[in-house]
Amino acid sequence: xxxILHIFAKDTRRFWREISLSxxxxxxxxxxxxxxxxxxxxxxxxPGSVTRFxxxxxxxxxxxxxxxxxxxxxxRIVLDEPLVGNRxxxxxxxxxxxxxLAAKTLFLICxxxxxxxxxxxxxxxxxxxxxxxxxxxxxxxLLFVIAVLLxxxxxxxxxxxxxxxxxxxxxxxxxxxxxxxxx
Length: 183
Fold this sequence. Notes:
Helix 2 (16-37) runs antiparallel to helix 5. The protein has helices at 2-14, 16-37, 47-55, 57-60, 63-80, 89-92, 97-127, 135-158, 163-182. It is mainly α and 183 residues long. The longest helix has 31 residues, at 97-127. It contains 9 helices and no strands.
């Protein structure tokens, strides 16, 4: 357990910029979502922004950027100790692969899953619902996000040796899945 927490703390210190970007985009999601549901409720933004917001609602919606920031974060933490190649940092250290995997999973749970769950709870509160009454639904949505958006990127990134290969693999897989779903 000590080694898992050590790797988790190392990754948190090393990737604080990517974590901050992800949390900032979650904050932007909380800020803009009520306006997406009801543009009249955009009282926090200047009145001239309301009409502009209606026309560029897709561009302002930070959901796409949030998913991309998660993919960046996943790629960076997985490629910090890559499986592919012969110059891995973790081969020269007494890291067990199970503990390394547990540390990376803990990192993703803490910085992506928990922060996303708290954001969803805050959005439910903003709408007027009690989040504690909707915990099973929130957990189901979180499980869906992890299974569809995060785990495939985690798996594909672990099979590549650098960020460019990881990005091309993920984008190629997305293109293939969208093409297959369209036919």
